[in-house]
Amino acid sequence: MNTSTTQQQTYLALWTPGWYELDQSLEVNVTSRFWFFQSAPSDYPEVERYDFVFFNQLASGSNMQVREATIVSMIHPQLGQIKKIDAGGLDYIFFRLAAPEVVVNAEEDPGTIYDAPIIITDWSVAVELANVSEPISNVA
Fold this sequence. Notes:
- Strands 1, 2, 3, 4, 5, 6, 7, 8, 9, 10 and 11 form an eleven-stranded mixed sheet that branches.
- The chain is mostly beta strands.
- It is built from no helices and eleven strands.
- The mean pLDDT is about 90.
- The protein has strands spanning about 5, 10-15, 25, 30-35, 50-55, 65-75, 80-85, 90-95, 100-105, 125-130, 135-140.
């Protein structure tokens, strides 16, 4: 569902964790190369709403493409605006824009939050992208 503004065209992407250090870390206002599914898994929530779906190795070992893009914003229905997702360890850290960060187990009990009275069953994050390149490489 791309949207167009007077300044830049943006696209909506879905980030759904596979946990176990299989996911990409994301940060708002950062331009980088990201891995996306060529064709998204059909069991992902509301996948038809999204222009892109971030790749993770739990869902597939191939079926991906690399594109350069800029992260414009990220939002989770319960956590709100997110400025960074650090998926580089046995715990993932969600840095929220207007609240303390949330530390989540990604190994022994994936999706369990430490020291917070929140229960989240769907960790999917809507990510707004800009400056999305054509595919740099594909892996079937």
